[in-house]
Amino acid sequence: MSKENSKGQKKGTAAKTAKTAAKTETVTTAAGTSAAIKSEQAVKKADTAVAATAADTAAVAAAADREGEEALYKARFERHLDELKWLYMEMYGNGSMFAELCDNLHRCYMERDQSLKALDRSRELEPDWYKKNDMLGMMFYIDNFAGNMKGVESKLDYLEKSNVNYIHLMPFLDTVEGRSDGGYAVADFRKVQEKLGTMEDLESLTAACHERKINVCMDFVMNHTSEDHEWAKRARQGEGEYMSRYFFFDNYDIPAQYEKTVPQVFPTTAPGNFTWLEDTGHYVMTSFYPYQWDLNYRNPRVFNEMMYNFLYLANKGIDIVRIDAVPYIWKELGTQCRNLPRVHTIVRMMRMIGEIVCPGILLLGEVVMEPEKVVPYFGTVEKPECHMLYNVTTMATTWHTVATKDVRLLKQQLDTVNRLPKEYLFLNYLRCHDDIGWGLDYETLKRDGMEERPHKKYLNDFFQGYTPGSCSRGELYNADPVTGDARFCGTTASMCGIEKAGFEQDEAAMEKAIRQDVMLHAYMFMQSGIPVLYSGDEIGQVNDYAYKDDPNKAADSRYIHRGKMDWERAERADDCSTVEGRVFQALDRLEKIRKSEKVFMSTAAAWTVETWAPGVLCICRAFEEDKLVGLFNFSEEDRTARIHETGEYIDLLSGREMEALEVDIPGYGFYYLKKKEE
After folding, report:
1. Which of 105, 301, 530, 649 has the fewest CB atoms in 10 Å of its CB?
2. Residues 468-495: what's their mean pLDDT?
3. Max CA-CA distance within the chain?
4. What is the pLDDT of residues 355-401, one digit of tens each?
5. Which residues are catalytic?
6. Cβ 192 vs Cβ 198: under 8 Å
7. How far apart are CA 128 and CA 423, in angstroms?
8. Nearest residue to 526 (alpha-carbon basis) of 387, 360, 410, 660
9. Residues in contact with 392: Cβ distance below 8 Å, sequence separation at least 6, in sequence order
C-alpha cells in the first residue's frame, strides 16, 4: 500500500472517529472537513436534545406541582362542599350565585402566591401554631406609628426588639377624610389610603414580616361601606341593583318599626339607626354614622362580593383578619339586629371559604360582650367559626379593679374564662384603639352595693382624676347627659399616673405609677390567650392632646390615646434612668419569661386562688410538670396574701427561693412564683 493511501485511510478513520464522538477536530482533507461539519451538527443536536429533556423535566415537574396543588385544593374544597352548599342554598336558594362563588374560590386560590401557599401548608400541619406562648401582639395606626407602610417596614427591627411577632395594622383601606370613623368607613376594599401607600407596599410589608416570622392582622369591615363607596354612589343615583345592597326605604314606616327594637350605637353623636337622603328621597340604614351604610346580607351578591374582597386581601399576605362589628352583620325586623343566628351562618361560611383558599389565615371576631356570651362566635369543635375573640369585658373589669382596689369581680370574670374549653382563644389587652365602655356585671356588683349609674359615674370621675387619691388622666367619650352613660379614653400610662407624675416632676409618684403600669402588664400576661400591646405602651407613652387642633378629629376624644409614636422617646428604651427605659426593660423581661416558660401556653390549665387580702389577685397556671403562681397587688398598700400553696417556689424575677403560703407583696407589686421540681 502506498504511503498516500495509508495516510488517507488513517485520515478517514480519524474522521469517522470524530463523527462518532461528535468532536470538531481540525483536519485538512476534504473528508476531514466534512466530518468536522457533521460533528458540529451532532453536537448541536445533542445540546438541543439535552435542553429539550431539561425543559421537558421542568414542564413535567411544573405539571406535577400544578396537579399537586389542584389535588390539594380539590381535597380542601370537597371537605367543605356539602356544608357550604347547604348553608348557602338554605339562606339564598340561588344555585347560579353559588356556582359563581365556587368558580371564584378556585380563581383566588390560583392567584395566591406560592410563598403563601407554602405557609398555608405548614400551618395546616401544625393547626395550633398560634396558641403557643411566644405570641405577642401590638396594634397601631400606620400613620401614627411610622408615617406609611414603607415606614412600618423600616421599623421591623424595633418591633422585634419589642418581642412582637403579631402586628395589627389599624384600618388602612381607602376612606374619605372627615367621614372615616377612624378608617372604618371604607370607600374601596381594594385600595390603600394614598397617604399610607399602595397595595404593592402592603405586599412588600407582609413579605418582609413573614421573613421575620411576624404575623400581620388587618380590619375587615363587613357590616357597612362608606357612602363614598362605588356601590353607594350608584345606589344614590337610583340604580336598583345597588340600592338592593343596602337597606333603602322611601318612607319612614319600616324604619320606625326597626327603631322600636334596635338599640342606638352612638346615641349622642349619631342618634338613630337611619339617615334621610334628601337627594334620593329615601331613608338608608346607618347603625353607626350617617356616612356608613349598612350592607344587606339578604342579597347573595353582597355576600359573594365581600368574600371576594376578603380573599383578595388575604392574598396580599394578611395572616389575621379582624371581622369588625360581627354581631351587627344580619338585620331582621322586630329584633335588636344583634347576634342573630344568620350572623353565625355567615361567619361559618367565611371560615370554610378561608380553609379552602387560604387555610393559613385566622379569623378574629370583634364581639363586645361578656366571655360566656361571646362563646357562640367560636362555633363548635366540629363546626368552628372565629379562631380568636377579644376579651373585652375582662379589660373593662381590670380597670374597675384599679379604681376600686377590689378584685372580687375580676376573680369571678377570670374563673368564667378559665372554665371555657381550651380550644377557645382570647386576645387580652389593657388598652386598644377604642374607648372603655363600662359593660360590667352589674347584677354581681349590685349585691356588693354598687348600682350601675352611680358606679359608672364613679369610674369616669376616678379616671378623669376628679376623685381624691386618683392619679389618672383622660377624657370621656360619647357622654349622654340623659342616661348619665359615658365611655372613657386614655392610655395605659396616663391611667396609671405616669402623665400626672411627669407633669408634676414627682419622682416618688412616678415610681409608683411605673410599678402599677408594669404590674398590670404582668397580670395581663398571666391570662389565658394572646397578650396585645397598644403602640407606645411599651415605653409608657401618655395621652396626646394634639387631636384637639385637628378639625377632623377634635370631636372624637378617642384620638387622645391614638397619638403619634414618639420615636425620640423610643430611643431611650435601653436607658433605665428614663421612664421609657424603666417601662420597656421591665416589660422586656416579662415578655422573655413568658416565651421561655411553658405554663404560659394558651392550652395550660389556669385558675384563681383566694388570697384573703383586699386588692390582691392570685392566678395559677399549670402545664405538664410546671406550675406557676402569679400574685398581683392592685392596691398601693403593702398586703399579705394567704394562699397556702404547698411546696417550694422560686421567684422568676428575682431568683429568690420562697414559700407560697403567706406572701408579703408591696404596693402595686407582683410575683411570678414557679414551683421547684420535687
Report:
1. 301
2. 92
3. 131
4. 999 999 999 999 887 777 888 999 998 999 999 999 999 999 999 99
5. 324, 366
6. yes
7. 9
8. 410
9. 367, 368, 369, 439
